[in-house]
Amino acid sequence: MPRRPPLDAEPHRTVSADLHRIVRVLDPYVIDRRAGATRRHRSREHGLPALLLARLPDGGAATDTAEPDPGLTALVLDYGERLKSSGGGVQRDGTHFAPHAVVGDVGPDRTRVREDGPHLLLLEDVAEQLRESMPQGAGALRLPEFDTCLSVLRAPVQDDDAAGQRRTLRKLLCDTYAARFHEAFPVAQFGEAMDGWWGAPFRLLSIVARWLWRRWYGMRVDRRHPWVSRVLDLPGRSFLNAAVQLRLTHQLALAHEAAHPTRAAESREEELVREILLTALIHDLARAARPRAWSRLRPRRAWPFVVLLPTVGGAGSACREFLDTYAAVAHDIANSPLLVLGAATDELPPYAASPPLRAFPAQRGALGTRPPGHEATTPFSAAVAGHATDAVRVLALPRTPDDGTTVAEVPPPTTVDFRPPRISDWWRPVAAVIAAAMLCGGGLVLSREVMDLLPDGSLAASCRHVGKGEVVGLTDGNDGCDLAHGEYAADLRKLEKALGRQNAKVRTDQPYRTIVFFAPLSVGSESKRTAPIGFQTLRGALLAQKNVNSRHLKAQVPVRLLVANAGEYFRFGSRGGLNKTNSTDVDVARMIVDRADRDHIAAVMGLHQSRPESQQAAIELGAQGITVLGTGVSGQRMVDGDSPVSYFQLSPTDARIAAVMASFALHSPQLRALTDPAPGSSGPAAVVVYDPKDTYFSADLARRFDSAYRSTGAVHLVKYGEMDNGRTTRAIADTVCTLVHRTGGFVLYAGRSSVMEDLFEHMQSEQACRARVAPVPVLAESPAPDVILHPDLMHDEYDALKLFYNQFSLPAPGGPFGQKFRRAFHLSAENDAALGYDAVKILSEAMNAIFSTDPAFSPSALVTHLQDPGIHDYVGESGVITLNSDHHYPPDKEIHVREITPAGDKITDLTCGVLSQGARNVTHWGPGGSFDCPMDTAS
């Protein structure tokens, strides 16, 4: 674009002094809408005030009110001509210095006026003029938001109900948007330009791209333009709901216009439609005025969009309607690139702010302490800096004879440049492409470096997304694999962070060994069941790792800890063999084996559930000579039958647990106080809740309890599947409560801990359970972890029940372990925490013993050591432990039966076995030690 000369360089033209003054004020802001402010003080959110020209009364004082003047119309039109004149003073079609529009009455096409209404055509005409007057090299003007609103108002919707209108509008908008995309898509244009088969691939690509674009827009269309709902005072943010209401408002406006053809009175509906259309137009212009940072058009669009109002007359005139609408919406729009210049030809609008001083002196030197136009430039400068200004300002010109004063009598404005397109504008897109290429290249190099640090892509192979949102695999807390998922994800994520911190302190350039904590640590997103019981064991293992690595012994191997998630029900912990539930290719046990050499894995601990899937994992690991030390595992089949020689566990088995529970049920004074002996029996009736499909744990425990107790009391078996739905659970709760109420017995809960609270919830609301004077006693082998950690739940949520439960260790709350655990995790140390602590300590001591003679020992050496010489009478936090080739689980492991009192306290009613406290063997329990403790006949 050419350099813009001063007005005195334009030949054969007589120019008014008023025009010179307007040029002096406006030209700097037409060249750059943020002129006059440094980059540091420029606000991204600003709007220039609309400037309304008026006259001071003849001979008026500085405080006089400005008056309208029909003669100012020519002044506004002259400035419009200046915006499209060439440098030589000759008007040239298509040459513009800034996009501009002149507002006038709508055309003579009465059909369009009747169908669309003058309020719509007014703003459409402004938008079209702005499109057509875009300067050369500044690109095309796109108005997507404004065009969307026009499409809504003109949509041929025949449906009467709102839902049908929403569907029609969605389809119409998606089709329109896809068509615009197709027109602008370069590949589509290229395909249309090529004939025959050569263009077929491009046409096919454009069809696929158009379909994808349409789908993407269709998913987002209802979330776009939330401001429309606010303008229409509608609840929510749905654009389609607002579009339906906008159409109704438009139809009401058309009806009002038809009833008042003279436009003597304007309806609120017309105002609303105009406000929404103008707001959409300003939003589009704001985006167009500030293209993306990498666009070549950004430096070429420094100008504002100029709107000229030659005749701002009384109510009903087109210019007045536009100015009224602009004044109504300007305060709610943070960033407006519009520069509005109008001439007051009738009564001034009440919202127009008058200047405090006369804008221009009648003669040079009068009030000449400030430059001409100061009162106009001040609010412009304030707006550029982001300060609040009036939406419409009156610029009062002196009423002096002005019959075409020559420019020589007025100080000429300085020569200014309207910035032309430059080749240097292309540095932005070129730099953006180079930066994107460098980023992609750097990311590729970085990913390769990371993969070099993780041989065979072990990170990707050790962290897999499976069904229902779970993430299974193993992590060291620093490799980016996050196993947390489900209701307790936040708890696991905290433990992962602690794991990462502790592992980072282990020097991997020196000999070390790794222990893997392997258990189900997540549940599917469709299930509310959780497995936090493993979290307590993991906390104990983390505390033991910290303790082990802080010691400085003569022969000591540092311990790293990995955490492996087998998924809900241990489904993904193994594959094939005994595991009939995993139909995928995910096998976490295989992942552990694959990382055994690189991570120096010596042992696996945990499992936590007696299942075919967990035993299959032990078999897979044992086949590679890796020791598995189970914690919280009690199923008899885990140590019998298919159990590998490399498998050991720290918990007693179902055979002894069932015998202890039968002894407690028969003799416990606490349980007897809540039950009645069955007729013809010495003990109360037992309602055994179990899962017949859970053969490794629940069904095995129920069968063994039945065998031990049936001779002394009646046994009623009630099936309760781990995967039953809520409706089935309610029916089971009804059966259980009815049996307990009829027999005066107790509930023996042999089900999984994860679904115990589901049953309790329904039992609490059953009439048969609530009808008892005393609460229903429940004796559980595997209680819900939340109930144990928060015993007040029994009183607060399940006061119709009384819980007795098993525990395989009893750490002293005031002892060193209990205090360290509470300081580290702000929780009490329960049975599972002690098991996790002891597992790491036992494996560490065994590895230290081997390391003293064989620093490069293999995992199979640990299996051999645990078999012979083994661990003999190790006094741990979970009890006295002996493990060897004859004892794959501790013989006569301590067992406690505890109860939760109404006050939320936990007291111990039965203690049997070899205790860690005092390292003594308790063989009798009850008042005065009157009852024998069941012991292991063989281990």
What would you say this structure looks like, in words?
This protein is an alpha/beta fold and 939 residues long. The protein contains 31 helices and 26 strands. An eight-stranded mixed sheet has the order 16-15-17-18-19-22-23-24, with helices on both faces. α3 (110-116) crosses α4 and α7 runs antiparallel to α8 (200-220). Helices cover 41% and strands 14% of the residues.
Rg calculated over all Cα atoms: 42 Å
How many H/I helical runs? 31
Strand order of the largest sheet: 16-15-17-18-19-22-23-24
Q: What percent of residues are in strands? A: 5-15%
Shape: elongated
Classify the secondary structure makeup into a structural class. alpha/beta
- Helicity level: 40-55%
User: Count the strands?
Assistant: 26
Low-confidence stretches are: 1-14, 86-94, 357-372, 402-417, 452-460
**Distance between the first and last residues' Cα:** 97 Å
Oligomer: single chain
The profile of the biggest β sheet is: 8 strands, mixed
What's the mean pLDDT score?
A: 82
Write a compact overview of the structure shown.
Helix 16 runs parallel beside helix 17 (533-550) and helix 30 (831-851) packs across helix 31 (859-867). The protein has 31 helices and 26 strands.
